Structures are given as C-alpha cells and as structure tokens.
UniProtKB/TrEMBL annotation:
GO MF term list: ATP binding
Source species of the chain: Thermatribacter velox
Transmembrane portions of the chain: none
Listed Pfam families: ABC_tran (PF00005)
Name of the protein in question: Metal ABC transporter ATP-binding protein
Similarity section: Belongs to the ABC transporter superfamily.
Length: 270
C-alpha cells in the first residue's frame, strides 16, 4: 500500500440535519490502496460520512478533498469512485438482464446518448468474471438471490473502472455463505491495489480483511490498525457499557448491543 498518496481527506468536518448534529469535528484520511472499514452503532453517522466523502452531502463546516481536489469538483472526478449504496432500489420485474444492468455502471463514462461500444462490453464481461457471476449474465435481474444481487451491484460499480470502491453495508440481507464470498471478492480487489471503503457491523470479520478501521459515533472515536483499534475500551466508548464483547483471540469478533445510549448523545430539538 502506498501511504504517501491521500485519495480522500476530511478536515474538521461538521454536519447536521436541521438542528440534529450528526457528525462533529471529523478529520480522516484514506490512503491509496487502503482497505478501510468504518464501524459504529446505528445512528452514529456512518452513512452520512460516506455521503460527505462522495460529495452527495455538503458539510456545514470543514473541508473535504477527493484526490487532492475540493469535493465541490465531484462532477469532474466522480468516475474515479465506484459506489454501492446500502439499499439499491431495483425493480425486479424490469426486463433487463445482469449484463445489461452492469453496463449501466459505464453510462457516466459514455456520456449523453453514446451507445456502448465493443470495448465497453468487454469491460463488463471482465467485471462479471471477476465478481463470479459471468454464468448468469443473461438472467433477468428479478431471478437473483441476495448474494448474486449484491455481486451484481458491486460489478456495476466496478464497470466504471474506479480507483476507489465505496460500499455502505454490503452484507445486509444476505446469507453467511454469500457474505464470505463477497468479503473474499473484496480481498481480491484490494490485492489489485483498489482502494476500498466499507461500512460494516461485522466487527470481527472486517478486522480480518481491512488495513485500518475507523470507529465512528458522531466523532471519530478511534482510527488505526485493527489490533490497535478493536480494544474493549474503544468498543465500549462506541456501543455503550451494556454492549457485550465475545473474544476468540485478541480481537472481539461479536458485538451484541443492548438498548444503550451512544457515547455522544444527540441534542434534542428546542
């Protein structure tokens, strides 16, 4: 991993919805080739943090840079980032197959009414092979399992040949076997020097795959290597004193959160 090239940087970022402070004084750097996992309790601001990184939201205070350029220039550099949202609204009855759906990931490159060329279909074919769904490329999208659908969404993000892949809770609503397959896919992509940022609740699993972990609960509670970050005192600060941590080795791999208050309670509206 090249630690000298910063692809995303946040400097003292604040963000609020109306009077509700969601993120407070967040500073964070993501380096080229890094696999960063962002963890934290529900409502901690993880998805908001991703959207700020992507230029989909604007901070009230602070600066955000993508590839050294202000996030306001997002439209000029958006094709360098592939995004897999937490919940993608897909009309399962729409008459489109997997291959055609993945091609939509190249529309930002094609621009306007330009039709896909031979090169574009070759790139899509390569991506389908890479994520392991080439054999179902002609299947209608409504016929896919949860794991297959998630791989299709990742393939669509990769079809644009991004330098950074951003995923928001990619393991939601899929079975454990499919989950393992997707983590292995992300591992292979990371080994190809693709920068990966993912939000996850799977504390122990992401510790096995990621280079660094950012613990977020309104603030960045801790950011560093998994073995440095995933300590019981840090997890307690994020998930509350009533959370339970199960240890198999030095890193807690299961977090069971009771109805505990976050360590940075939200401010109520006046």
């Amino acid at each position: 991993m090249n630690n000298q090239i910063t692809v995303i940087e946040l400097e003292h970022v604040f963000f609020a919805y109306q009077k509700h402070l969601i993120l407070e004084d967040v500073s964070l750097k993501v380096q080229k080739g890094e696999f960063l996992a962002i963890i934290g309790p529900n409502g901690a601001g993880k998805t908001t943090l991703l959207k700020l990184m992507l230029g989909l939201l604007k901070p009230q205070k602070g600066n955000i840079y993508l590839f050294g350029k202000p996030v306001a220039m997002w439209d000029k550099i958006k094709n360098r980032i592939g995004y897999v949202p937490q919940t993608a609204t897909i009309d399962a009855s729409f008459p489109i197959n997997v291959e055609e759906f993945v091609m939509t990931g190249r529309y930002g490159i094609l621009r306007g009414t330009m039709r896909p060329q031979k090169k574009d279909w070759q790139i899509v074919a390569k991506v389908l092979e890479e994520v392991g769904i080439a054999e179902i490329k002609h299947r209608q999208i409504g016929e896919l399992s949860g794991g297959q659908r998630q791989k299709m969404l990742i393939a669509r993000a990769l079809a644009g040949e991004p330098e950074v892949l951003v995923l928001d809770e990619p393991m939601t609503a899929i079975d454990p076997e499919s989950m393992e397959g997707i983590y292995e896919l992300l591992k292979r992509l990371h080994q190809q020097n693709l920068t990966i940022i993912t939000v996850s609740h799977d504390v122990g699993v992401v510790a096995q795959y990621s280079d660094n972990i950012a613990c977020v609960n309104r603030k960045v509670v801790k950011h560093g290597r998994p073995e440095e970050v995933l300590r019981e005192e840090v997890l307690t600060a994020m998930y509350g004193k009533e959370a339970a941590f199960f240890h198999h080795g030095p890193i807690p791999h299961i977090v069971v959160q009771a109805e505990s208050e976050p360590c940075f309670p939200r401010k109520k509206e006046d």
